[in-house]
Amino acid sequence: MIENTKCECGHNNPVGTVLCEYCGKPLDEAIKDKEKFENEMRYEGKARRSQVATSSLFDSIWNFFSSVKIAIIMILVTLVAAGIGTIFPQEEFIPSRTPEIYYAENYGIWGEIFYSLGFSDMYSSWWFFLLISMIGISLVVCSLDRVVPLYKALKNQRVIKNTDFIIRQRISHQESIQQELKSTTLEQLSKQLEKKRYKIRQDGDAILAEKGRISRWGPYINHIGLIIFLFALLLRYIPGWYLDDMVVIREGEMKKIPDTEYYVKNEKAFAEFYDPKEVPSSSKAKGAVVKKYQTDVSLYVQEPNGQFKQVHKGSTLVNHPVEYQGLSLFQSGMELNPKLGAMTLKVIDKQTNQDLGNFTVDLFDMKLNQAYQVNPDMEVKIEQYYPDFALENNQPITRSQEPNRPAFIFELIDKKKGKSERSWVISGLDLDKQMKDNQYAINFGGLKFVNESALQVRIDKRLPLVFTGGIISMIGLVMGFYWQHRRVWIRYTDGKIYIGAHTNKNWYSLRRELQQVTDQTDLKLKFVD
Questions:
Q1: What is the dihedral angle through the alpha carbons of 515, 518, 524, 527, rounded to the nearest 10 degrees?
Q2: Is-above-0.85 flag for pTM?
Q3: Cβ atoms 299, 306 nearer than 8 A
Q4: What is the CA 267 to chain-centroid distance, rounded?
Q5: Which parts of the chain span the membrane according to its record (predicted)?
Q6: What is the per-residue burial (b if ≥16 Cβ within 10 Å, else e) of 125-157?
Q7: Residue ranges per domain, the chain?
Q8: Three-state SS string across 195-231, please?
Q9: pLDDT tens digit string along 301-332?
Q10: Residue spans of alpha helices (H) in 427-521
Q11: E strand intervals along 90-198
Q12: What are phi and psi of 376, to 5 degrees?
């Protein structure tokens, strides 16, 4: 680091300055060769905060995040971690509520390691959030550490530069000319450079020609876009900004949409099939071919009084979601085999064979001891319910919670006679003989089947920010790649004319341009072999 930053021209430079802010003279002998000198020209030799000796914890943190090497390491670590996270499906995409068992059974020891190390829920993990945050912080610090001194240097450029500064440029030349030719030569060079769309500034016997400064801001505009993009990615961790979930819902059922205030009701779900005549004979599909899946849904919100208010309704089709205030419901799947949804049962007086009434049991919306009114004088209560009935050691059990073979133990209460009796009802069995002492029989009156639809729920309020960041980033890339920042310094002193030029890229083009300029003057200089 340069401690003594006072230049021979008398200007006091801030600590850490490599090239004098006033005349451009190198302040450190170590950078007087052209290669090192050119590296310092990226930031005009200005002192950057990260080059100042650390005196506090904040300075140490700043220096850490301002390092390009550290930024590259963090990006590589994040890319590797993101790649590892795609080896096996993430938890949100597996068909199991016990991921620790699922990964072990399906992927063996590697699945266990994958789950144990937290890669199964990586994109929602705190450490992945931390990595993305650190990359964002690094982008901000790297940009501020460089763009502020660069802006100050370019804004306050002086026309007159030390000859040492000029001759150490990668493209430079010095030529002895007579005093009487000085004015003519400078005027010719100025006019020719102006024809090349350079902005000309002249101070006495010195000229500064510049164009394409916008190119220097391209990388930093790109950084701004990337910072906005990363910020948008981090918003997924804030509730309400991002949701990607699945709701499986039957016809007639209403469910709360996770992490929202909305409830969705499946009004009707159905699949439409192609007519066999419409299916090409060359098609390899066997059986019925689905033409479309459709679910008619209604959205509700719960009011303070507990009542539900409908706010929207529509029909979901594949790739045509129902949308409401940023919430999208996509048709994701449908069970083509309807499920048993409700059973209508009728009560018969076995002595008179009289139908005393009926009641309907919703198999997905019931509670034990729930009462059903058969008629004004009679009601039925559910004592036990077995959705998928089976016997094990002569004891009733249920094999699953799906109503594949529903069985009930009912208590039938005759209010008029003041008595009650218990009855078994098992799907597919006639139990009248087993319950011959009962006065009443409960028989099947009808079945109601329902379709089940899978709806993908999406909320992504980040998209405007994602697109904004992407557009800004592209603008920065165009600015950086399309334009080149070119400067030409010309100075006449002590009977010599000094010409030096610098660009941030495309050096050959700049040499050719200077050759064309000098060819139109009395100077016969050679910049291109």
A1: -30
A2: no
A3: no
A4: 33
A5: 70-88, 126-148, 220-238, 463-483
A6: eeebeebbebbbbbbbbbbbbbbebbeebbeeb
A7: 48-155, 163-212+484-519, 341-448
A8: HCCCEEEEECCEEEEEECCHHHHHHHHHHHHHHHHHH
A9: 999 998 999 999 999 988 899 999 989 999 98
A10: 463-482, 507-519
A11: 171-176
A12: -55, -25
Nearest to 227 by CA among 137, 144, 127, 131: 137
Distance, in Å, from the CA atom of 470 to the CA atom of 231, rounded to the nearest integer, reads 12
Instruction: Report which DSSP code applies to 352.
Output: T
Is 346 or 1 the better-scoring residue by pLDDT? 346
Binned at pLDDT 50, 70 and 90, residue 224 comes out as very high
* Residue 465 reports pLDDT greater than 90: yes
Contact between 439 and 350 under an 8 Å Cβ cutoff? The reply is yes
- Cα angle, residue 59 at apex, residues 57 and 65 outer, rounded to 5°: 105
d(Cα 368, Cα 379) in Å, to the nearest integer?
14
Which stretches of 353-495 are assigned E, i.e. beta strand?
354-362, 371-375, 378-386, 389-392, 395-398, 407-414, 419-426, 440-460, 486-493
Answer for the pair 287, 273: CB distance below 8 angstroms, yes or no.
Answer: no
| Banded pLDDT at 281 (limits 50, 70, 90) | low
Sheet of strand 206-211: strand arrangement = 171-176, 496-503, 486-493, 206-211, 199-203
Closest CA to 252 of 360, 384, 408: 360
CB-hemisphere CA count at 13 Å for 256?
Answer: 7
| Short-list 178, 156, 113, CA closest to 14 | 156
337's tokens: 């085999």
Reply yes or no on whether the pLDDT at 32 is more than 70.
no
Q: What is the pLDDT of residue 4?
A: 57
The pLDDT, as a whole number, for residue 215 is 92
For the chain, helix, strand, coil in percent to 5 are 35, 35, 30
End-to-end CA distance of the chain: 38
pLDDT tens by residue, 87-134: 999 887 787 778 888 899 899 999 999 999 989 988 888 899 999 999
**332, 346 contact by CB (below 8 A):** no
Q: Does domain 163-212+484-519 have CATH number 3.40.50.300?
A: no
Whether the Cβ atoms of residue 462 and residue 129 lie closer than 8 Å to each other: no
Tell whether the model's pLDDT for residue 505 goes beyond 70: yes
Alpha helices in 156-289 (DSSP H): 163-167, 182-195, 214-234
**For the stretch 394-416, what's the b/e string if a residue is b when 16 or more beta carbons lie within 10 angstroms of its beta carbon?**
eeeebeeeebebbbbbbbbbbee
Please tell me the distance from the alpha carbon of residue 462 to that of residue 126, in angstroms, as a whole number. 19
For residue 505, give the 3-state DSSP assignment: coil
Radius of gyration of the chain (CA): 40
User: Which percentage of the chain shows pLDDT scores above 70?
Assistant: 93
The pLDDT of residue 189 is above 80: yes
How far apart (Å, rounded) are the C-alpha atoms in residues 284 and 286? 6
In angstroms, rounded to a whole number, what is the distance separating the alpha carbons of residues 32 and 312? 73
Cα angle for residues 166, 168, 172 (degrees, 5° grid): 65
